[in-house]
Every structure is written in C-alpha cells, then in structure tokens.
Design a protein that fits this description.
This protein is α/β, with parallel strands linked by helices. It has seven helices and 18 strands. A nine-stranded mixed sheet has the order 2-1-18-17-15-3-13-14-16. It has a seven-stranded antiparallel sheet with strand order 8-9-10-7-6-5-11. Strands 4-12 form a two-stranded parallel ribbon. β5 and β6 form a beta hairpin. About 4% of the residues have low confidence.
Length: 349
C-alpha cells in the first residue's frame, strides 16, 4: 500500500470554487476512467440513489500556548474525556510533566497546580495531565476562568488543525469545513465533502437522489499511518459515530448508497455490522471484507501506507494502483485539498 507521491502533487490550497475540483470517475475493471469535475456529480447519480454525508465540524483544536518560563508549547485536542477534560497530543511532551499549566500568549500562568492569574487578558489555561495509551496521548484539563462556553474559548484561543503536509496558510478557515458541517468535534475534516456545494447537492436532489447525514467524529484513528510490518496488525483508534434513524431507513430503501468520504463509509458499515446506530468504532476495512451498505464512494486521493488506502483496496481491489497512476500522470492534486475520485464497488469485494 505504498506508492511514490511527489511533493508537488500535494495540494497546498483548496481549488475555487469548491466544485471545480477534478473528478476521476472509475469505469470499472478493464475500462478507462473518465475525467470530469465535482460540478458534474448530478449527472452521475440516479433516481433512488442515497448520498450520505458526514456532517461533523472541525474543532479549533490546535492551541499554541506557552509555559511559565515563556517557552512555546502546543496542544492538539483529540477527543473529549470528561467535563473540560480532553485526550490530546502535547508538545514538547517530555518537558511538560503533569500539573504544568500552559496559557495563551496574552495570559499569565499562576502557581503550579493552581489557576492562572487574572491579568485582564483572560483566564484560559490548559493543565497537562497523565499519559494515556501508548502513542503519546495525554489528558489535559481546560481552565475556562469562569467562562461558560468552552467552544467560544476554543474559538478565541485555538486554530483549525490543518494536516502537517499543508504548509501554506489558509486564508479562510471555513474552507476546511464542509458546507453542511454541523456539530464541532473533529480534529480533521471529512475531506471528500469539501468539494460539495449547495448547488451540487441541489442538483443531485433534482436528479432523483436523496441526501442524508451521518456523523463520524474524525480523530487520530482515521489518519494515523500504518507503522506495522503487516497490515492486519494495524490498530485503529476508536471514533464516535451516529447514524440517524431516518438515514438508516433511507439507506435500506436505496437503489445505490453513495458515501461521501471514507468516514461516511465507516459510520455506515459500523452500524450495519453491529446493528447499533450509534457508538464507537474501531472498524478497519481491508480485504476480504463483506460490504453491507456502500455501493459508490466519492473520495480524495490518500496518503501512502494509510488505512484509508487499504479501505479503497477493499472497495475496488488492486486496480486502485492504475487509478492513482492515471491521476498522477494527469496532474491531479492529492490529499486534503486535492481532487477526487468516484468509485463503484467491485462485485465480490
């Protein structure tokens, strides 16, 4: 599941408008793909199709902070673990023992273990806690300084966490949110959905398709690279999902289920496999896999050695290599701000 990804193929900026992104349309085994744009999607759907989108919204989860000594620190919130308590990645982790208080540049740190002083610039602080798990995650507690709205404090002090391979600044943070993003909770966007516009969705509805939501809170599990020698030894971090009753009913009666992004796939397949419409999933889709819900997949081009690429292989088989080679040769843009593919599941996968 490795392939050569040239640095120049990694998109640094989102295309404008959103639906101008190129769309490589899989023609199936032995057939050449077509080259369209996402704006053409309404022409590719059929009456009876159900298009499933992940409505999660990206949190301003990256906090640039400072230690009492003035040294820089960074906290990336991953998942809520309790009231004002989160699992997080903390840097520099080894230099931040439990009890360390970190504040924004406009705040002051109080005594170790106590709340920060109120200097009129705000009382927000992050207290570093114990290590959890074996991958460097820490518990952190947010001191809101009397503020009641945690999200508002994160909006004030945090930033949307772009992937590390995107080095260019983002002029508009909303371009890393889908147009239907709803409840904040994810640390990364469901990137296939970044291409969709209200006009495209309305066009799909006019073509006879239904558009329905799921939620999968994107965390470390989705984008964590495979570091094991054997693919089957890779462990997924659990991520929370919700498949509403109306969505389950629509999917059950669909002619085809069109998932927008691998996170929508994992939500649908997790609910179908367990019978539970909500929960936490560690589902790692790889060959051989008994597909229960998804027939068509709109997805971006993924990182080498990623669980997402393994999922694509389970969906269409080894011809993903030909599709990726065609995209690279044709100048398609890769990863989060890149172009997209429309894949039809190969029977027997």
């Amino acid at each position: 599941f490795d392939y050569a990804l040239p640095e120049e193929a990694i998109a640094q900026h989102p295309v404008e408008p959103r639906d101008a992104a190129r769309l490589l349309v899989d023609g199936g085994p032995g057939a050449a793909p077509s080259h369209l744009t996402v704006a053409d999607l309404p022409e590719l759907v059929r009456p009876g199709d159900v298009i499933v989108v992940n409505t999660t919204r990206v949190l301003p989860a990256r906090l640039h902070l400072r230690k009492a000594t003035g040294g820089a620190a960074e906290v990336l919130l991953l998942e809520r673990a309790g009231e004002a308590t989160w699992e997080a990645l903390v840097r520099p982790g080894r230099r931040l023992p439990p009890g360390t208080l970190l504040t924004p540049a406009d705040g002051q740190v109080g005594r170790a273990g106590g709340p920060p002083h109120d200097d009129g610039a705000g009382k927000f602080a992050v207290e570093v806690g114990e290590v959890v798990g074996d991958d460097g995650r820490r518990l952190v507690h947010l001191h809101l300084g009397g503020a009641e709205d945690e999200l508002a404090e994160l909006e004030r002090h945090g930033a949307v966490p772009l992937p590390p391979y995107i080095t260019a600044p983002l002029a508009d943070a909303e371009r890393y949110q889908t147009v239907y993003a709803d409840r904040p909770g994810s640390v990364a966007a469901p990137t296939a959905g970044l291409h969709l516009t209200e006009a495209v969705l309305d066009g799909c509805r006019a073509a006879g398709a239904d558009v329905v939501p799921v939620e999968l809170v994107v965390g470390l599990g989705t984008f964590r690279p495979i570091a094991t020698d054997r693919v089957e030894d890779h462990l997924m971090h659990a991520e929370r999902y919700v498949v509403p009753d109306a969505t389950r009913e629509a999917v059950a009666g669909a002619t085809r289920v069109v998932a927008v992004g691998t996170t929508a796939v994992r939500a649908l397949e997790s609910a179908a496999a367990t019978g539970r419409p909500t929960g936490r999933t560690e589902l790692f889709i790889r060959r051989p896999y008994d597909w229960r819900a998804v027939d068509v997949l709109l997805t971006n081009f993924h990182m080498p050695r990623s669980s997402l690429l393994v999922l694509i292989d389970a969906f269409v088989g080894p011809r993903w290599r030909d599709l990726y080679a065609t995209a690279l040769d044709g100048g398609y843009r890769f990863l989060s701000f890149g172009d997209a593919m429309l894949l039809t599941r190969t029977e027997g996968r």
